[in-house]
Amino acid sequence: MSQSTRRSTARAPAPSEPPSAAKGVRIRTPIPGPKAKKIVEADTRLLMTSTKTSPVTAARAKGVWVDDVDGNRILDFTSGVGVLNVGHCHPAVVKAVQDQAAELMHFAGTDFYYENQTLLADRLTHLTPGDFGKKVFFTNSGTESAEAALKLARWNRQRPITIGLLGAFHGRSMGSLTMTASKTTQRARFDAFAGGGHHIPPPNCFRCPYQLEYPSCDLYCAKILKELYFETSIPPDDVAAFIAEPVMGEGGYIVPPKGWHAAIKSICDEHGILFIDDEVQAGMGRTGRWFAIEHHGIVPDMVTTAKALGGGLPIGAVIFRKDLDYTYQGAHSNTFGGNLVSVAAALATLDTIEREKLLENTRVQGAHLMERLRELQTRYEEIGDVRGLGLMVATEFVRSREDRTPNVRLKDRIIEEAYRRGLLLLPCGRSSIRYIPPLVITREEVDEGVEILDASIRAARQG
Ligand SMILES: Cc1ncc(COP(=O)(O)O)c(C=O)c1O
User: Fold this and answer.
1) Which of 246, 266, 302, 450 is 20 to 30 A from 221, comparing alpha carbons?
2) Three-state SS for 181?
3) What is the pTM of this model?
4) From ligand 1's centre to the CA of 201, what distance in Å?
């Protein structure tokens, strides 16, 4: 177990100390340390089995730095699974939350009125692509955003089918799970879902399902929808919506090839099928644009968002073409959507992304990170692919570049070696690791992370 003492060796902060602004990884105990172990044990005893990755136990955090309960300081390349785009405990978000909580916390924004949700809705209608009238529905999570969008599509089109991609992730409640097809563990024993869900193979050039090469493939992975599926198993006039992520997240950070979205959208338009753009993971600046669909040059009918919107507080939204709105009350609603404190946090998050020019920083640091990972790829033949947009980047681990067999064990070992050295990472897909630090990250912090990753890969290969 690594016990490297990097930079500061200051004493562990007492629990009452303010969030640490200190930088540099600091390892004072094995991770998990004695206090962390107790929490992990209690958690395992009391909390439902979910998706735990690493026994890292946070006490406080600031920017890209997390202090754990044993006094270790960890570099966060996970952003709370894509939530903390403005960094942990950004002072502007903290202040907005504190001020709003002291004023008015909840008033049921779906049933009554208050101003801040109209301000946030207005901002979102202007930030999302599409020069047409839009409206917004606020939710509390990504899955709830997917549910709201899928219901709105069905209600409008009065058609029973939704099409998505194999490998996609849209959430775990029954409607969104119907369209999630990222891992069979997510779906096993839950059939029959919400019904009407169909999936087509993903636009994954590293593992092309048709063993073709881009661009000579002529985007067969899009054309097949019309040329095969619509001729055989899916009647196009029964389809309400096509849902896709602009960059497939949980499925492995797969960036569809240029032209794929436009080809799918044009098939959808031909048949009156609504295109739902799931920006829950890729949106809010993560790829260097407000919404990742902007890289693909199409305008969706609906955009779903959540995760990073609230800067750390739970809030999601569906932003949709105004003409798709319900024509009577009661078809859809919720209790907490547009909660005042979450909305205040979201407004502060948007301000921070603008004021601190985080889209630009994402493009600059993302290019640097990608370059550093490509350099690692030249040294380690197990790095089969380096891909992504902005600071939504992943490396796919293989046994060797020739046979491309997914190297799941190596990926797991690297993640473990990394957190022991003070770098927090998350997997995606079968054998990939994603790198999604807060967008406030500096070049020095990117470099520190890549150096720890390098050491972790070396150690994992030997193990
Ligand atoms: C693209 C995408 N959509 C939806 C979701 C579901 O979000 P939540 O976990 O907030 O329900 C996720 C979560 O990872 C996601 O990545």
Assistant:
1) 302
2) coil
3) 0.95
4) 20
